[in-house]
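Continuing the batch. This is chain 6 of the set; chains 1 through 5 are on the previous pages. Same settings as before, nothing changed between runs. Recording input and output for traceability.
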Amino acid sequence: MAVVAMKELLEAGVHFGHQVKRWNPKMKRYIFGERNGIYIIDLQKTMKGVEDAYNFIKEVSASGQHVLFVGTKKQAQDSIKEEAERAGAFYVNQRWLGGMLTNFSTIKKSIDKLKNIERMKEDGTYEALTKKEVAKLEKMRMKLEKNLGGIKEMHSLPGAVFIVDPKKEHIAVLEARKLNIPIVAIVDTNCDPDLIDYVIPGNDDAIRAIKLLTSKMADAVLEGKDILSKELEEQAEKAAIEEKIASEEAGDRPTESTLEEKEEVVE
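Output for chain 6:
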């Protein structure tokens, strides 16, 4: 069964590209035709792209690595946050701060600052401060939460990134490529597909299209986690059985004291 149906893609408007004058010639192989000055994306290619991307994201998730969802354009913000949270993944949906991947150690310091302010708010430290000091801390907390809230618990670099509109998120693309982190992306007719490892040709401007394709990637993360969970359960059961067998064998094996007792009886 296909990961996404042709009907779903059509209803969400995934096939609508950009105006013909705003295209990237490298996207030619993903274009079906042109209608009223708009390029129409070949949805057969989209279905294949979704399937390949889904299987890859599933593998990454099943290996225990996490996936970072990225989409800061207005049309993508809600879908990125909702679907990433549903999948228990990390996300950036407000602003990509330069160095989020390539200078992750510095970003982690900002995350630590955010967590420290949150602790101060929860443990009553705020009560000992002046209103002005609290207002200053709250302003800083909200700014940090807005930009870093989606990666607050991300302690290491992701195994893959999923991006909506790689042209807009070009800094994220460059950072991921520099670190050899695989990129999955919704690639519209104005983008460069050569920069992307797993291309999902599709409309990156329509909210419904973004929601549909992002939800499929979230499903892949969840399926991968389910596979990993079952593998870990099987390993734990196997280890428990092996431990039980070893324990039983050790119980049947005569100890030095019992051997000495037998020798004394024989004498």
